[in-house]
Specification:
The protein is an alpha+beta fold. It is built from three helices and four strands; from the N terminus they run αββαββα. The protein has a four-stranded antiparallel sheet. A hairpin with a 2-residue loop joins strand 3 and strand 4. The longest helix has 17 residues. The termini are far apart. 20% of the residues are buried. The structure holds ligand H2B.
């Protein structure tokens, strides 16, 4: 996939965008947020819904799941940074029931 597909965001652009994204933070060059559910099935159901949406836009989360929590870290490895696609995926995630 050509790298020009992505718009890599600068530090100041990111600060401006992320301050309006509830619960998201910048850490170690990634956009991060954690979600907590009542049990494992709820957490895994959330991941399943996101996985299908991520596949549709061909942009995939780095994440981990322990019982009822899902910790998400977004970045674009092809662009070695955070891009408009990470923001797009973060919005999809926030709009998925949690
Ligand atoms: N997801 C993320 N988060 N970053 C990428 O750079 C990326 C991806 N690249 N999903 C895509 C797939 C690329 O490897 C394929 C070939 O399109």
């Amino acid at each position: 996939m050509p790298q020009t597909r992505y718009k890599k965001l600068s530090g100041s652009e990111l600060d401006e965008i992320v301050k309006n994204m509830s619960g998201w933070e910048l850490k170690d060059g990634k956009l991060i947020k954690s979600f907590k559910f009542s049990n494992f099935v709820e957490a895994f159901g959330f991941m399943t819904k996101i996985a299908l949406e991520a596949e549709k836009i061909n942009h995939h989360p780095e994440w981990s799941n322990v019982y009822n929590t899902v910790a998400i870290k977004l970045s674009t490895h092809d662009a070695d940074g955070i891009t408009d696609y990470d923001i797009k995926l973060a919005k999809i995630i926030d709009n998925t029931n949690h």
